[in-house]
Design brief:
CATH topology of the largest domain in chain A: C8orf32 fold
Strand content of chain A: 35-45%
Helix content of chain B: 40-55%
Number of domains of chain A: 2
CATH architecture of the largest domain in chain A: Roll
Distance between the termini of chain B: 78 Å
Structural class of chain B: alpha+beta
Largest interface: A-B, 58 and 52 residues
Oligomer: heterodimer
Number of strands of chain A: 15
Number of helices of chain B: 27
Largest sheet of chain A: 5 strands, antiparallel
CATH class of the largest domain in chain A: Alpha Beta
Structural class of chain A: alpha+beta
Number of strands of chain B: 21
Radius of gyration of chain B: 32 Å
Strand content of chain B: 5-15%
Largest sheet of chain B: 7 strands, antiparallel
Radius of gyration of chain A: 20 Å
Strand order of the largest sheet of chain A: 12-11-10-9-13
Shape of chain B: globular
Helix content of chain A: 10-25%
């Protein structure tokens, strides 16, 4: 499945900002599960200095410095990604979770794909006894990791309520857990916390999710959102497998990966500091458009192509 | 007298009888703990020679004299601000100094130095591997998970090629003597070791308290070590004459005073995160002359806090973009962010093997036997020997994430605690290490005139110099007041001891004096950092405000005393004074109409009122404390005395005369402060900011007093009082024989450019200051402070006393406020080049 992605962030400032330094993690990376066909990142006003590198967890990072006074900052990422995840089920044979735990501690890789990088608590995914105990019933001795982690995900999907008002970007896992409410970010953090509590390697994935518009309705422009889920290392063979507790499904061909880290802080799409005396407002627009749908819609004349995307066809 | 003794140590039989008695009594009553190695007595139970020599000389001081000497030296060092102790605040330094040093022989020391040097080299090699190739993990010498658990394994530094090619500048090891008498490493300090400044301080105190004894013992000097440390840092810079900064977390840091002391001793610029800014891959210091390059940064901020853009985004202590600057080679930051990973206890067990592999030699100094439970065999061993071990967290992580708050002895756990621990060990074995229980060795200390053994930990420092890794011949020693020798119990109740490494031969006298060819003669002391300018400016304002408030109190009390014998309307003048004080926040509103003595006392001492004299003096002292390295010792002492003179006897002020006495005292100290600033401060930028603060404050106060006391309906009393407040009585009486009149008083207080208290004089002085300070703009246009000031000066110069009215006085006052703001905008951090770091928020 090929997707056209557009992720546009607009900051508007009350008074002119004379200097900004941003770290942008907005460019998807190719992996066995997806191939990035094209990608671009535009920052307005034009940065005076740009440094591109691979970040600490393998994510593509761009640091931009803007020294021209500005009232608005627009960051627009576009890409075309072919997602071809291997077909997996919760019943796919996998090593037992206790075996996974042993192997991840023994792992001899310091790189960003190593399970060793994702074993320890972070500020947003601390070890919390209540969350560990919540996770524990799914992890009977010798149970295959896919099955055990899958059951935890399914239980979370049943027990937790999606509520975009209940939490904010800085809510901690234990707070959202207590309320049994939150958004994708909270659920991903809680699941990571629970897995780590049992000594298992778990990571935070930021990315996009294909959304299906209600029957008979056209896709609303910019109405899609960024998404987040949990990745669990399931042994050397299967590697990292995405579990989406918000939707109770494995992350496969509807999920496009932007970056993977230990928690939200490692992969936040935009981190920055500005010299800003006044207030700032933030607007985010995301379009995740399957290419076949886009072609069909344009042929039918029922949908206007988002600016610039037409040229990708 | 011991002080007259020649510089040589006496033999025991040469001691005076009283000293010999004291020494015998000390030795007779000294009882080392069974099975615990001791510094005074060797393993055969005989006192070591060098200790005997020391104690013999020490016994020569009569009891009272040595205590007197020690406390004098301590007080002198502290009062003159060498240690930057904030008067009245106890928490900035946890350990008081002990009068007795820890003494080590040259031979003993050689072993320690060799072991610590090797360990520092090993740590450098490990950091090179961890942040470079990563071969140790890839080839199975170390599991990845033994590194990744540390918050100080900074992935963003992987692959970095730091300028100078080094990762480690300063390393410290905490040592103790094991049961077999060998020295053991208890802990490694690789992040940003603290305490070297305290070692300097202890040395200063002891060498001053017993100079002859110190010289006679041939104690090795510390100065060459610090010289090497400085040269080592300088060697990593691209430029010949690099600007080296010591990056501090700020005055709230536990060891701020030690950091300030070190910075001053080493000649480094003491900076906080806000002082630094990253541009084009380089780091700059914000100064009043714009951005100036920082070549090398000695780091005292933990890695996690050092760059809010890439690491902990909640940090206000760091410099956004610093890691990027390190990666691009634009700055050397030492120890490199990430060096703290070597403080993980998980790594201890691997070190012997890693040392053989990396350095090709055996580890010379063993560390405490440690088993990381992340390995199945080690974990099994720990579980088998649980009762005999201590359990500790395997990694350094932020407190809330720590697997356990502090190390525990399993034997001291309750059954429930033990069960809970075992369950957690089962879930996450890699979070824990088991360690053999350490018993500290002891060294003699004096308690109530008796010699007693006290458990101690010795911190030894190694620094990278152009001639390789060098170990400081001395250290930072903490002795415990409790006889419990388990290291685990070493807590807050500790003292610091100086560490004397004694030479067989007399030592060469060295200080940090550079050889002549190294020093380029210059007159400007480098550029003043904006934050320091800001602090000096406000120090000036606080001092001046305190002075003005004191004058108000004086007038309050004297006018009251006068009014009892005179007929004029002092009551109204009194009300004006009280109103001024209330407006100023010096006095509570409820005070209006109360007795003058009460109002005076409150104005002096009410520490809840932000404008009271004691509050103002405290603000001044706090401001001064955060830039101790820029003020002379005398200046600091006066400030401390000022606060002390106000606090002493605050509750015993019964009469106006007593209040007056205190006011006069305080005013005298302030006069001394002014004189000191005027005569003894170098006329570089720092002094100008201090003085500008004073001038602006004085100008504003003059405007206020004039409005209140020299308005159209002013009485003779009012004018009289104004001359008092403006300290212009004598000048007025000399110039005008006719008595008080409105116009001449106004002229003298506001417009007379020759009266040092007049508004006109302040404005003229301010002009001189601004003229000398550097300009940022190169387009020939006036900068904002100049614009405001020139306008004000023109108005004041062309004004006449007859035309002055309240509106004009208000206009002058507002112009001074605008000038204060403009100076802030232009020179200080909140100005155009400031960083109020707002984070781009939101889940995008």
């Amino acid at each position: 499945m090929i997707y056209n992605l557009r992720h546009r962030t607009t900051y508007t400032y009350e008074s002119a900002v004379s200097f900004a330094r941003c770290v942008l993690r907005l460019t998807p990376q190719s992996s066995p599960a997806q191939t990035v066909l094209e990608s671009s990142l535009a920052v307005t006003p034009r940065p005076s200095n740009v440094i591109e590198r691979t970040g600490a967890f393998g994510e593509h990072t761009l640091t931009a410095v803007i020294e021209e006074p500005h009232l608005a900052l627009v960051i627009e990422a576009r890409s075309r990604v072919d997602v071809h995840a291997p077909s997996l089920q919760l019943t796919t044979p996998s090593p037992s979770w206790d075996e996974v735990r042993k192997r991840s501690v023994r792992n001899a890789d310091l790189g960003p794909d190593s399970p060793a990088a994702y074993l320890y608590p972070t500020r947003r995914t601390p070890i919390v006894a209540e969350i560990t105990e919540y996770a524990r019933p799914s992890f009977a001795e010798g149970r295959p990791i896919m099955e055990a982690a899958g059951e935890l995900m399914t239980r979370m999907y049943a027990d937790f309520t999606y509520d975009s008002k209940a939490t904010t970007v800085s809510t901690l896992a234990q707070e959202a857990f207590k309320a049994r409410r939150g958004v994708c970010q909270d659920f991903a953090h809680i699941m990571i916390s629970g897995l780590k509590g049992l000594g298992l390697p778990a990571a935070y994935v930021s990315g996009y999710l294909r959304t299906i518009p209600p029957p008979g309705q056209a896709r609303l422009e910019g109405a899609d959102a960024t998404h987040a889920w949990t990745a669990v290392w399931c042994g050397e063979g299967l590697g990292w497998v995405g579990f989406d507790p918000t939707n109770g499904i494995l992350a496969q061909n509807d999920h496009i990966v932007l970056a993977r880290g230990r928690d939200y802080s490692d992969v936040a799409p935009i981190d920055g500091i500005i010299l800003a005396p006044g207030e700032q407002t933030l607007k985010v627009e995301v379009d995740v458009i399957p290419e076949d749908e886009l072609v069909a819609a344009m042929r039918a004349g029922g949908m206007r192509s988002p600016v610039g995307l037409g040229t990708l066809l | 007298m011991a002080t007259d003794a020649p510089i040589a140590v006496r033999r025991r039989e040469d001691l005076k009888p009283a000293a010999a008695d004291r020494l015998s009594s000390w030795l007779r009553n000294y009882k080392p703990l069974p099975g615990v190695p001791d510094e005074l007595f060797d393993r055969t139970g005989r006192p070591r020679d060098y200790w005997l020599s020391f104690l013999g000389e020490f016994a020569e001081y009569p009891q009272a004299e040595f205590e007197n000497r020690f406390s004098l030296a301590t007080r002198h060092i502290r009062d003159t601000g060498v240690t930057y102790r904030i008067y009245g605040e106890e928490n900035e330094r946890s350990w008081p100094l002990s009068p007795m040093p820890l003494i080590l022989s040259q031979g003993e020391w050689a072993q320690i130095a060799e072991g610590v040097e090797q360990r520092a080299n090993l740590i450098e090699a490990l950091l090179q591997d961890f942040y470079g190739e990563g071969a140790l993990v890839a080839e199975g010498a170390l599991p990845a998970a033994a590194l990744t658990g540390s918050a100080d394994f900074v992935r963003a530094m992987r692959g970095v090629k730091p300028p100078g090619g080094r990762f480690l500048q300063l390393y410290a090891a905490d040592l103790g003597r094991g049961p077999d008498g060998r020295w053991w490493v208890l802990d490694d300090r690789t992040q940003a070791p603290s305490g070297a400044g305290y070692a300097l301080e202890s040395r200063l105190v002891l060498s001053r308290a017993y100079p002859n004894l110190y010289n006679a013992m041939n104690v090795q000097r510390l100065a060459p070590f610090f010289d090497g440390l400085r040269k080592g840092l300088a060697a990593t810079a691209e430029r010949d004459d690099p600007r080296i900064c010591l990056l501090t977390p700020g005055p709230f840091s536990e060891t701020y005073f030690e950091q300030a002391h070190l910075a001053r001793y080493l000649g480094f610029l003491l900076v906080e995160g806000d002082d630094l800014v990253v541009r084009d891959g380089r780091v700059y210091v914000r100064t009043i002359a714009g951005l100036k390059r920082a070549d090398v940064i000695l780091r005292r901020v933990d890695a996690d806090f050092i760059d809010p853009l890439e690491l902990n985004s909640a940090s206000h202590l760091g410099v956004p973009g610093l890691l990027e600057a390190i990666r691009s080679g634009g700055v050397a930051v030492l120890n490199i962010p990430g060096s703290g990973v070597l403080e993980s206890k998980a790594l201890l067990g691997f070190l012997p093997k890693l040392c053989r592999r990396l350095l090709g030699e055996e580890l010379k100094m063993p560390n405490v036997a440690t088993w990381w439970c992340g390995q199945p065999m080690e974990r099994a061993l720990v579980e088998r020997n649980l009762e005999n071990l201590a359990i500790a967290p395997a990694f350094n992580v932020p407190g809330t994430l720590a697997a356990m708050a502090k190390p525990r002895l399993v034997a001291s756990m309750s059954a429930a605690e033990k069960a809970e621990f075992l369950a957690r060990l089962n879930d996450r074995p890699g979070d824990y290490v088991g360690q053999e229980v350490v018993r500290l060795s002891t060294t003699p200390v004096l308690r109530d005139g008796r010699l007693e053994p006290a458990p101690f930990v010795l911190r030894v420092y190694a620094a990278m110099t152009p001639d390789g890794m060098k170990v400081m011949p001395g250290g930072f020693c903490r002795t415990s007041d409790h006889p419990d020798v388990r290291a685990i119990s070493m807590g807050e109740d500790a003292r610091t001891n100086d560490v004397w490494v004694i030479s067989d031969r007399p030592v060469e006298r060295v200080t940090l004096m550079a050889s002549t060819e190294d020093v380029k003669v210059r007159r400007i002391l480098g550029h003043l950092p904006s934050r320091a300018a800001d602090n000096l400016f406000w120090l000036g304002r606080y001092i001046e405000r305190a002075e003005a408030t004191l004058r108000l109190v004086r007038s309050l009390c004297t006018s009251l005393m006068d009014s009892e014998s005179a007929t004029h309307s002092a009551g109204e003048t009194l009300a004006i004074l009280q109103k001024l004080l209330i407006e100023w926040g010096a006095l509570d509103e409820k005070a209006l109409g109360r007795r003058a003595i009460d109002a005076g006392r409150d104005t002096l001492h009410d520490d809840k009122a932000y404008g009271s004299v004691v509050s103002l003096v405290r603000s001044a002292r706090r401001t001064a404390a955060s830039m101790r390295e820029r003020l002379s010792a005398d200046f600091w002492t006066l400030l401390i005395n000022l606060e002390a003179s106000l606090v002493e006897g605050a509750h015993e002020l019964l009469s106006e005369a007593e209040v007056l006495q205190q006011v006069e005292n305080a005013l005298q100290i302030l006069a001394a402060l002014s004189g000191l600033a005027q005569e003894n401060m170098n006329r570089v930028a720092g002094w100008r900011f201090l003085d500008m603060g004073r001038r602006i404050e004085r100008g504003v106060n003059t405007c206020r007093f004039t409005r209140a006391l020299a308005h159209e309906e002013a009485t003779i009393d009012d004018l009289d009082l104004l001359l008092d407040l403006a300290d212009s009585q004598i000048t007025y009486r000399a110039r005008y024989l006719v008595g008080l009149a409105l116009a001449p008083v106004r002229d003298m207080v506001v417009l007379d450019p020759f009266n040092t208290r007049s508004l006109a004089f302040q404005v003229e002085t301010l002009k001189q200051h601004l003229d000398v300070l550097p300009a940022l703009q190169d387009d020939g246009m006036l900068e904002e402070p100049d614009r405001v000031l020139l306008n004000l000066a023109a108005q004041v110069e062309t004004e006449t006393a007859a035309r002055i009215n309240t509106e004009k006085m208000i206009a002058f006052e507002l112009a001074l406020m605008r000038l204060s703001d403009a100076i802030g905008e232009r020179f200080f951090l909140r100005g155009a080049n400031a960083v109020p770091t707002a984070k781009l928020a939101g889940l995008a």
